[in-house]
Amino acid sequence: AENSRLSREVQTSQEITTREVSNIKSMYEHELSDARKLLDDTARERAKLEIDTKRLWDDNEDLKA
């Protein structure tokens, strides 16, 4: 009887731990996905700004000439 009760407790504890680890993993993967998207968006915006800056610099040089 005691062994059976302890076995159920261990199994319940393992199930809870597995569920918690799974939930944390899911949250982490979601956060990581969001961070990657933000990084990609930022890199894309930076590239656009660099192109715009170069164009404006060239326009400025042309106007000075």
From TrEMBL:
GO terms for molecular function: structural constituent of cytoskeleton. It comes from the Eukaryota. Keywords: Coiled coil, Intermediate filament. Residues 1-65 form the IF rod domain. GO terms for cellular component: intermediate filament; nuclear lamina. The keyword Metal-binding does not apply. One of its GO terms (biological process) is nuclear envelope organization. InterPro entries: IF_rod_dom. This is IF rod domain-containing protein. The lineage of its organism: Eukaryota, Metazoa, Ecdysozoa, Arthropoda, Hexapoda.
